Amino acid sequence: MDKIQQLGRHTLDRFSAVGRATYLLIGALFGGRPNLVKGFPLFVKQLYVVGVLSLVIILVSGLFIGMVLALQGYTVLIDYGAEDSLGPMVSLALLRELGPVVTALLFAGRAGSALTAEIGLMKATEQLSSLEMMAVDPLRRVVAPRFWAGVVSMPLLALLFSSVGILGGHIVGVEWLGVDHGSFWSIMQASVDFKDDIMNGVIKSLVFAFVCTWIALFRGYDAVPTSEGISTATTQTVVQSSLAVLGLDFVLTALMFGN
Amino acid sequence: MTFQSQNNAVQNENGLTPHVELKNVTFSRGDRIIYDDISMSFPKGKVTAIMGPSGIGKTTLLRLIGGQLYPDSGEILVAGNNIPSLNRAQLYKVREKMSMLFQSGALFTEMSVFDNVAFPIREHTKLPEDIIRTMALLKLESVGLRGARDLMPNELSGGMARRAALARAIALDPELIMYDEPFVGQDPISMGVLVRLIRDLNHSLNLTSIVVSHDVHEVMSIADYMYIIADKRVIGHGTKEQLLQSESPLVQQFLKGQADGPVPFHFAADSLQQDLMQG
Amino acid sequence: MTSRKVEISVGFFVALGIAALIFLALKVASAGVTGSGETYTIHAKFDNIGGLKVRSSVKVGGVIVGRVESIHLDPEDYAPVATLAIDTQYDNFPDTSSLSILTSGLLGEQYLGLEPGFIDETVEILGNGDYIEDTKSALVLEELIGQFLFSQGNDD
């Protein structure tokens, strides 16, 4: 009986967390009149923190994953004499799946946890309360720029991930393993469709960006303002974002690429 | 609820116009009652202290006045406006005339001291940069930190951080300023500086100051009026002289810093004999 | 970090992202039929469309000239009808042209092979909304096996 009570309370806690998170999002996006002149520099600064500083890990990971894909794909395809299909294999895997998903996971780990820790710390040192008492809405000033920065930068990062991955696949496949340069690119071009593959990947990325950034910001804002609380919140961001990304990926893939 | 400006308030028993009033406020957190039907009055232009044992929620009181928390019942009037009934836009308007100094200073860590002080001016006015610069420098001068204006908050000592936060709190010339435990953990010199600043700023800017503290000695040297809170209610209030003559044993224990009295030394437990025998 | 440096690096980052998108759009995706955009419609009836799908390609001698826009059943005789969108730059197909459902490679996807027929004064050119009469349906594996077994049986 006790367990069921606990389960019930746990479920209610989850629901109330979702409710608070929704308040946060609505307050950040729709609270008050948007001030583009004041808000834009904040947005740019956050784009730097969230996007530019993630470039290194994204580009390096993309390169390596593209190269590994080409290596592994080659060993399988060569048995069927189908090594010319290496181009479409690498590019479709990256554009449809690995680009958006791996970028989202890396983003959640690097930028997401940083966002949570930063906002949690601002809460613990009462900076958020100070903003409130100074009649500045912390949701608009602190949360909103970070949200838009996350939503804008993740698709860009995913595109860069896929591009670098394809180039990496080219390096390994064509330069090293001897796949024909012409076939690599021409069969790829015949198999990859802009709307269905690239844009679907971008849409996936946008959905992941929305969810990961939302989770990271909420966990920071809602954190217990102690060092332990912030540490818990950061871990929760990474875990929850990752699970959400993988779950949503399944749903989106079924919708987009299923029948 | 119409938005009132000041000077409509009724005078309290001392003949002073209250700037902030709490009327029959009850506040609880979960099932725990923090305040049970308390009423307080803070006269305009004076320094009023709120004292009491640690942990009873004195900071909560400031948050209630500032509108960050809502009471279960009762009215909280600031310059005639009932805070819990205001909508967001009205609340933000009232807050422009209010300032709070947090225990840790709460400076924004990514900006310099100067930018911290200039922040409220830049946010709420459209003044040109050179006027903002003058204003910020003057505020820093009044707390004695004009030379430290380009330092970052992590380069300041605790006392300096609090002074910088104070400069920021007075940047827009508020009418009410609330201090949350300003003397905690300060060395005697910084303590003296802060005490002097609170008193001088109150007089020169004609502020209403509310100081929450449990440092009896420091608070008594500057407060015009004091409230002592314990056990969910006000157990004593008055000027320094009135309190020292109070007959309440709780007030006396608090003011004299006695270890044992109405607030017991021993946390509730079984008798010592029983505990030792069960071990 | 001065705000000037921040702005420059953010601008660089966004430009890089857009460059990646352009790179992908041009070098990776098919810039084929979606290029010119203008198409006209031709219908074709089959007995069996096999594995033909919407968006399968229509090729003449291996060159993509159009795509399958939709596949539905004729409401009267329930025969499968494919609607094709052909690029307008190829507007000279006579109505004696033939359509076959072919498979690319051994295990590949199916596409429509379009063979232009002969042209003389009696022949009309296919225009928007016309039907191609000469169609060869897909090869269905079971029928092939059935034919094979039947012919085996006849040899005895």
What would you note in describing this structure?
The complex is a heterotrimer of chains A (259), B (279) and C (156). Chain A is an all-alpha fold. Helices cover 86% and strands 0% of the residues of chain A. The termini of chain A are far apart. The mean pLDDT of chain A is 90. In chain B, 36% of the residues lie in helices and 23% in strands. Chain B is built from 10 helices and 10 strands. In chain B, α3 (113-124) packs across α4, α3 (113-124) runs parallel beside α5 and α6 (188-204) runs parallel beside α7 (216-222). Chain B is globular. Chain C has 156 residues and is α/β, with parallel strands linked by helices. Chain C has helices at 3-28, 141-155, and strands at residues 39-45, 57-60, 63-73, 80-87, 98-103, 110-115, 130-132, 134-136. Chain C is elongated and about 90 Å long. Chain A binds chain C through residues 41, 44-45, 47-48, 51-52, 55, 91, 95, 153, 155-157, 159-160, 162-163, 166, 185, 188-194, 197-198, and chain C through 1, 3, 6-7, 9-10, 12-14, 16-18, 20-21, 23-25, 27-32, 34.
List keywords for this structure.
heterotrimer, B: 279 residues, alpha/beta, six-stranded mixed sheet, four-stranded antiparallel sheet, C: 156 residues, eight-stranded mixed sheet, 26% helix
Q: What's the total count of β strands of chain B? A: 10
Ends apart, CA distance between termini of chain A:
45 Å
SS class of chain A: mainly alpha
User: Which structural class is indicated by helix and strand composition of chain B?
Assistant: alpha/beta
Averaged pLDDT of chain A:
90
Task: Supply Rg of chain A.
Answer: 21 Å
Order of strands, main sheet of chain B, comes to 6-7-8-3-9-10
Low-confidence stretches of chain A: none
Q: Helicity range of the residues of chain B?
A: 25-40%
Beta-strand portion of chain B reads 15-25%
Quaternary structure of the protein: heterotrimer
Number of helices of chain B: 10
Please trace the helix and strand order of chain B, writing H or E for each element: EEEHEEHEHHHEHEHEEHHH
Summarize the biggest pleated sheet of chain B.
6 strands, mixed
The geometry of chain A reads as: elongated
Helix content of chain A: over 70%
Largest chain-chain contact? A-C, 29 and 24 residues
What is the number of helices of chain A? 9
Low-confidence stretches of chain B: 1-14
> Total number of β-strand segments of chain A?
0
